[in-house]
Amino acid sequence: MKRIIFALWILSVVSLTSCDGRKSLLGDKEMQKSVMERLEEQKKLACGRYKQLFSVFDNNLSENEKEALSFLYAYMPLSDLSNHDGKFFLQHVRYALKARSHFPWGKHIPDNIFLHYVLPHRVNNEYLDTARMVFFRELKERLSGLTMREAALEINHWCHEKVTYHSTDEYRTSSPLNTIKTAYGRCGEQSTFTVAAMRAAGIPARQIYTPRWAHTNDNHAWVEVWVDGEWYFMGACEPEPELNMGWFESPATRAMLLHHRTYGHIPTMEEIVTVNRHYTEVNVLDRYAPAKKIFVKIEDENGNPLEGAVVDFHFPNFAEFYPLASVKTDERGVCDLMTGRGDLMVWCYYKGRSSRQKLPVPDIDTLKLIPGKFSFSDSIQQHLFHAPPPSPTPDHSGVDRAGHIERLHLEDSLRTAYEQTFIDSVEAAGFAIKHELEVTTTVKIFKQSRGNWKVVKQFLEYAAPKDPDKALALLSVISPKDRRDTPLNVLKDHFDYSGNPANFDSEIFNRYILNPRIRNELISGYKERLQNYFSESFKEEVHDNIEVLAKWVHDSIETNNAANPWGVPQLPSGVLEIKVADANSLNYFFCGSGQKFWCPCPY
User: Fold this and answer.
1) What domains can you pick out in the chain, each with its CATH number?
2) What is the pTM of this model?
3) How does DSSP assign 454-479, residue by residue?
4) Regions in the chain scoring below 50 on pLDDT
5) Is residue 127 within 8 Å of residue 277, measured between CB atoms?
6) Per-residue model confidence (pLDDT) at position 599
């Protein structure tokens, strides 16, 4: 029944036209109005960068380009508004529309599916790049003559040629092009890369994520693709002979939540877990596992319902109660969640009062909680938590695997051949000796830089003749991921504009002034820009009293946490221009600003 209703809804979306008879990419008048209202709100929010962002609308744009660009801007997080400009987003729009017209399946994709799952430049919390354009040019000939299903499978083979799994830090997600440069990534980076590749070829795609498994200490992310009217799953960079195949099929039957984030707001027959101004988080658990909808009712001591109470669902993972979802109660004091058939710990919060209770999902339909009935002074409790049992999965023994293993080996060899172009230890040691650099450290840095080794080499050739110790200190203090994807101009910026190390203790200087890394942001070049922004007299004041800078930041930059829900930090230069930031980005900006005055500033 759900599929029938969804199909009818799709047909209604396809048939919508504007009042002048021209088919609108944005659907009905209500959606057009909503997008335009949000666009105006975004223009006010980003007025500090109005010209950089919105002057692009003054170009000679087609109606579809205007509508697509308006849609992207309407739901864009603050990080994108401050980190990029209008030309960047118009390029994404034009290549998305180009893919839709170039590939034969493009004309069969409903506008609503295109808007939410092909057009968006963002998959999750990665930093953005020009992967859509690069991938389109590389894939368009390779996919020639293929059906949409065959193309989706072929793209995953292409992804496997480029990237394999390797654990990396989770503080930030590599962009798709940097994941290719590195030739490996964790599952979140593999799936971000694969979704970007699918969208570049005009195939709707989304990242599916389980925050944590219920039966083991880990999590996972994979990909769903929309092919000929249906959603199918696949392992990112893990090609199989057919769709709806992957090693995670059985573990997924034991999940407590599986979701994806949809750019903007989309009508759906599936459960919405979270919705904010920028994206919708949709629960797709029942596509993979036996699921059950459970209810939580929050009341006061007199049995009156409490509207707006926060209900958090947790389950044990990595020796903690990990947050699965957070939902607010309605006017009845009720909220619900579709989840797996295991046990959860439920917390509720209302006006400074809290309560918690274990919820065995298979045994309870509705859990009642009264905030204030729980005391932290008497919080030691003993519980046994059960994970959902595994459920049967489809039998794939009949799938034709002829030549599949051989092809995977070939793809591995192509990736390995690329990795063999990286600088080796002998060449790295020779370079260190030639430039009078400490050999062991230099070799380690080169090894960790992987596909970015040429940038590291160029930087050391530039910086080592000036100050070899400072050059190595800069490369040593940043993370291995930074060595793999930081461009040359950024390294030069921090080398040239970090002041004189002789004026500070070496450890303080390296960690808190030279170091471009503040916490989990993408390293960017900002020191020259920030140093040139302020007058010499203001710099002297700040150098004598850092509180002068703190006051300037407080008075000059608006804090807006709601505008950046993806959690991607804004770059300091963008914050300086747009004059609005979420709290984390504001802290990064303050620390970076402190560095520009050569004031040590730990986060």
Assistant:
1) 2-272 (no CATH), 291-378 (2.60.40.1120), 422-492 (no CATH), 515-603 (no CATH)
2) 0.92
3) HHHHHHHHHHTTT-HHHHHHHHHHS-
4) 1-22
5) no
6) 53
